[in-house]
Amino acid sequence: MRRMALGLWTVGVALAGACSSDSFHPNTTADAGDSGANDGGADAAISCTLDPDCDDDDPCTGEEKCVQGFCQSGTPPCPNPDPAHCDATCAPSGSAVTCGVAARDADGDGHGDSLCAAAPGDDCDDSSASVYPGAEEKCDGIDSNCNGIEDIDDGHLLGGAPIDLVVVAGKQLRRPRIAWASNAKQFAVTWIEDDERVYVQRLTATGSKVGGAIEVGDEPYSDAQFPNIASNGDAFAIIWWGAAQASTAGWTRVLKSDGTFAAGVQLTYLGPSLTHPSIAAHGAGYVAAWAGLDVEFAGLNASGASAGSYASSAVSGYHPRVVSLGAGFLSVYSAQSSGSVTVTDQIRYAHVTSATATSEGVLDATAPSGTSYAFPVLARTPGGAFAAWRAQSTGAASVRVAEFDTAGTVVCGPVDVTQEAPSYTGGAAVNGSTRLVTHYSPAGNAVHLTRWAPGCAYAGPLLVSTPLSAAPDPASAGGTYSDVAVGDDTIVVVWQDYGTSNFIRARVFGRNYCD
Question: Is pLDDT of 49 > 90?
């Protein structure tokens, strides 16, 4: 049964001289929408002498006329306020007609268009016969049953399952990071082994391994820590810090999509006193950020070689993240006092546009006690950038977020959700218009994927992992490291798990989350 609203009203129609049962009647269906012989319509061949020769005995089609010897259709008395979404209805009633409006059912599924303002139906997409109230909700990014929610939020489960991505017996595998190469159609995951060597594993666009793990950094570059990875679309740039000649140094190396390293460049020395490095695609190359006496920045070419420095931040910090933004790039970091500048538990940002120009500000003045554990994450959005970090408020941890436009101006936030209660925010990415943040939650001892809509609007969490094999160790600040990357059709979340040895796990699912 069609379910649609109907609006009715009565219109008086003059029928004199238009209802002769002896007259010749043209095709009434064609008459209703035809403008007559002069327009070449269906009545073009119907000749007449007088108006009654054209009368179809149906007042709802209007009064037909004989014009220059040919029948011309009348003007229906019942108007349609919105032909795209509504149908006008007409019923003869003596010498008058009763007019109404009904929601149009263009797709023939028995449900009228909800966009018909005069008489709204209940079909949220009248162009698809498989979308209507009561339809089966499929995992396809469409609200098939018109209840206002779809897919993963309407009864479907998260796709994929946790898998062991990298396991090396007797080895400690830590701090996984992942990136997507949009032109090469590959993911790559990097990690450190036994706090000494850096490795990378390539994955197909659907998350399957491509070959084996590749060693990126070896002796004498030992004591490797905090690897990070980014892609310029064609290759992957990996950055980390480690000991070299009794000094802490930063290193980068570029892995091409065929599994070989960029010709002529092995390891590029970035500078001393570098910790917590981050890297992002910038132009045809990359930009690197790291924590030192200040938060420092350097440009890299497509092969990973140094391509000049940029203005540093006003204060030092921990865990800087960086993304290309507008005319420059944006970094978000946990701040600490430096020189004459004193700060306390802040999350700060710096928008850098040249070797001398930087615009800075405070995102959050209530970061957790111990700024090294605030763990900001950052992702490029279509309209700017999205930042998230672990915040502390009245003793309860939360995920807190903010957004920037392409000029590096804060446009929303900070906004937080205390029910997420993270101990470590891991990575950020963008899936269409949705912003994604991975984090470890002590409640359930598991990794979650938090979703946010544009404008810092919270869209809910997804449980990605089963409980970790064991409690996280103190080296991970009471949490576990995780990250997320979004490909053409696939989302991959990676994290560090614990057992007799640490190992890297992953979950691969579609961009609708339930596929």
Answer: yes
